[in-house]
Amino acid sequence: MKNIILIGFMGVGKGSVAREVIKHSDYMAIDTDDLIESMENRKIKKIFEEEGEAYFRSLEKNVAQWLQNSVQNTLISTGGGFYKQKNLKKIGTVILLDSPFDEIIKRIKKHPNAARKLKKRPLLADLKKAKELYDERRPEYIKLADIVIDVTKKSALECSKELLKKVKKHA
Ligand code: S3P
């Protein structure tokens, strides 16, 4: 089993899909943002506020190197900007969770914890800027992905089943 790396824009549902995949497969899962928060013992939002984005990106780079050297058979969900790591494709099979920007925002807003979900993501604070970031990143996400899953209007469970089917075919 090669690693699976979930990439995609903030709020597209990488964490939720990962949780369903581990319920229905032998994969274990880790999350790059969680690794960074535990290494630093502070939240992503705090790291951005106190150190700036460049510092956060350097932590992502360290995580990417560690993943490549030391992690196997694992489902790795990533922060929305992690795809920029140069060794991404060496870590495992890259799976893009894809959805239009408006659908992603709708999805976040209807979540019971919507306010918290928006607050913890510094790059979602300004929706106009976030849309620009989405437009810039989407072609890059598509280019890197070995597998694309359109998650629009699908439950995390449906997405996880589609993911496992496509991974099997891709192997
Ligand atoms: C970021 C996405 C966030 C987190 C950080 C930066 C980005 O992760 O890594 O706030 O650059 O898109 P999620 O995609 O889990 O929100």
Structure, explained:
It is a single chain. With 171 residues, this protein is of the alpha/beta class. The protein has one domain: P-loop containing nucleotide triphosphate hydrolases (Rossmann fold, 3-Layer(aba) Sandwich), CATH 3.40.50.300. It has 9 helices and 5 strands. The chain has a 5-stranded parallel β-sheet, with helices on both faces. Helix 1 (14-23) packs across helix 9 (156-170), helix 2 packs across helix 4 (53-70) and helix 3 (44-51) packs across helix 4. The longest helix has 18 residues, at 53-70. The mean pLDDT is 95. Bound molecules: shikimate-3-phosphate. Residues 10, 33, 44, 79-81, 121-123 line the site of shikimate-3-phosphate.
Name the descriptors.
five-stranded parallel beta sheet; binds shikimate-3-phosphate; 171 residues; globular; Rossmann fold; alpha/beta; 5 strands
How would you summarize what this structure contains?
The protein is α/β, with parallel strands linked by helices.
Helix percent band:
55-70%
For the terminal residues, how far apart are their CA atoms?
A: 9 Å
Q: Can you tell me the CATH class? A: Alpha Beta
CATH architecture: 3-Layer(aba) Sandwich
What is the CATH fold-level name?
Rossmann fold
Q: What is the average of the pLDDT values?
A: 95
**Ligand set:** shikimate-3-phosphate
**How many strands, what sense, and barrel or not for the largest sheet?**
5 strands, parallel
The helix/strand order is EHEHHHEHEHHHEH
Counted up, domains total 1
Instruction: Give the strand order, joined by hyphens, for the main sheet.
Output: 2-3-1-4-5
Q: Count of DSSP E strands?
A: 5
Provide a count of the helices.
9
CATH superfamily caption: P-loop containing nucleotide triphosphate hydrolases
* CA gyration radius, whole angstroms: 15 Å
